[in-house]
Amino acid sequence: MGRFRPEDSIEVSQKQKVPFNEKEFVSDVFHNNYILVVGSEALLNAKEYMDVNNDMNQYLLDTINQTVFKKRKGDAGYYTSFSAMQPEHSPKALVQKQLFEQPNFKLELSDLSEELKDLLETRLFRIVFTTSYDDLLEKAMESIWGTNLKVVDINDMDSLREFQEEVKECTTEDGSCDYDRPTLFYIFGKARNPQECPDNKFVVTDNDAIEIICRWMNGDSSFKQITDFVAQKKILSVGCNFEDWHMRFFWYILKRNIANIHRGKVVSSSTSDGESTLVSYLEQNQIYHEADTRDFVKRITKLLKLSVDNYSLKDIIVRYRRKGSIFLSYHSKDFDEANNLFNKLYNAGFGVWFDNKDLFGGDDYDERIDKAISKCKVFLPLLTTNIKNILQNIDLDHTPDKDVPYFIKEWMLARQTEGATIIPVAKGFPLRDENLYKHIFEERIIGHACSGIDLNAKDGMDKLKQSLDHQLKK
Predict the structure, then answer these.
(1) Nearest alpha carbon to residue 136 among 245, 56, 32
(2) pLDDT given at position 339
């Protein structure tokens, strides 16, 4: 993969009044400053769904017209929108029936847009909002992030409350928020099986949109927290049709609640028939817009991949080292092993507090280490061959405090941390050694038995992820 150079910029049409600053965009994406907003036009594979312009909502509408009303485009009585249907037809019920009761309709990952799939697989967009109500995007994100993916439905108060609590935990005294757990947010509701959720709410018709608009307009506190969170981010919107009530209102909420929308705050792409209306609105608000969603997503994905080499290990650690409820403790000689574990856990969606004195020294190093351990939920001591050699030769009873290895001091602090679960992870360390592990590590240093995980085992990393997921959900 080649390195990104300034001359590799995305070419912008002379007609566009708002420039696309590719350097600023790349930097903001790598620093987790963007929320990806995915509309129905960006969801489907172009090869299979070109007749509906790759639009999920249009595909559902066409399918229901054909299977329920026996109508095709151009026929008299063909419904051009769900809002045009008679109330007695119950558009929402028709959508649920199509999604959950028609065996031939089930959508798989192969139906997802290849361009969107490639963008998601960069793992650079951890927070995704969707205006669609089907679960195809959720399936795609689950395939990338696994069980650590958080799914939030604006109409599901339990998931909304959990999201609010996690955001609050990541909000500092100055109001900034470093929440970065992989999250999919159904901003207009998620369609669910009516047998399992009879009171399921999601936006299908204009009346549904009006109902949720009233909640926003009435100052619902849960909605305010969302807009406050979004206010700190930039927006990359793909496949969002401005002619759609859903997206029109979303833009309005952004404009109404985020007073500092400015050049580069929002990047948008849409291929809808109402493009001229959308472009006019966006240009008035100094928002960059591209007309071809597939081509735009393909180009920014290439741009981001070409830019990977520009961001060093130090950049990555600086961004995420203080954002985890998992503390990774390691011997300085094991930095490469620790870094490898950090990357695997981070790419699986876990927040890991990871630091290095040589990279990030300073007078506050000890203080920030102590503070991080005291607040962690899970403490991971990385046990290696280097650790084994040190434990075999150290006499803790007769070693001056100043000569006690730093990682052992971290272990002892974790022992005193209320609510922290200690999960030893081994790379070349004998977890079954009666003297080294049970007597010295468990009894002498930690003070209680710990169930260690051997990362050299075939299923070691899977066991660690499962254990972390279990502990963090307590």
Answers:
(1) 56
(2) 84
Taken in order 83, 84, 88, 89, is the CA torsion positive or negative? negative
Residue by residue, DSSP assigns 295-337 as HHHHHHHHHHHHTGGGS-HHHHHHHHTTS-SEEEE--GGGHHH
10 Å CB burial of residue 245 (0-12, 13-18, 19+) is buried
Radius of gyration of the chain measured on its C-alpha atoms: 26
Instruction: Look at residue 270 in the predicted model and tell me its pLDDT.
Output: 64
DSSP lists the bridge partners of residue 327 as 353, 379
- Cα separation, 225 vs 160, in Å, equals 10
Query: Tokens for 474?
Result: 């307590």
Please name the residues in contact with 199: beta carbons below 8 A apart, sequence gap of 6 or more: none
Tell if the pTM clears 0.70, that is, is over it: yes
pLDDT at 12: 42
* Start-to-end Cα distance in the chain: 42
CB 133 within 8 A of CB 244: no
Identify the pLDDT of residue 159.
92
Pairing of strands 288-290, 378-384: unpaired
What is the distance between the alpha carbons of residues 65 and 70, in angstroms, rounded to a whole number?
6
Residues of the chain with pLDDT under 70: 1-18, 217-222, 241-283, 285-286, 308-324, 356-363, 365, 474
Q: What is the dihedral of CA 221, 227, 231, 233, to 10 degrees?
A: 120
Return phi, psi of residue 152, to 5°.
-120, 130
* 182 close to 126: Cβ distance less than 8 angstroms: yes
CB 69 within 8 A of CB 63: no
Pairwise CA distance, residues 128 & 180, whole Å: 11
Cβ atoms 134, 39 nearer than 8 A: no
Whole-angstrom distance, CA of residue 38 vs CA of residue 28:
18
What does 383-417 look like in DSSP terms, one character per residue? EEHHHHHHHHH--GGGS-GGGS-HHHHHHHHHHH-
Length of the chain as a residue count: 474
| Cα distances (angstroms) measured from residue 178 to each of 28, 95, 106, 127 | 14, 37, 37, 12
- Alpha-carbon distance of 4 to 298, in angstroms, equals 16
Residue with tokens 């990806």: 36
Neighbours of 152 (CB within 10 A): 21
What are 186-210's pLDDT values in tens digits?
988 999 998 888 888 898 888 888 8
Cα-based angle 147, 419, 472 (whole degrees, multiple of 5): 5
Sequential DSSP letters for 103-150: TTT---GGGB-HHHHHHHTT----EEEES--SSHHHHHHHHHHGGG-E
> Residue 261: its pLDDT value, please?
44
Q: Is 29 helix (H, G, I), strand (E, B) or coil?
A: helix
Rounded CA-CA distance 80/441 in Å is 69
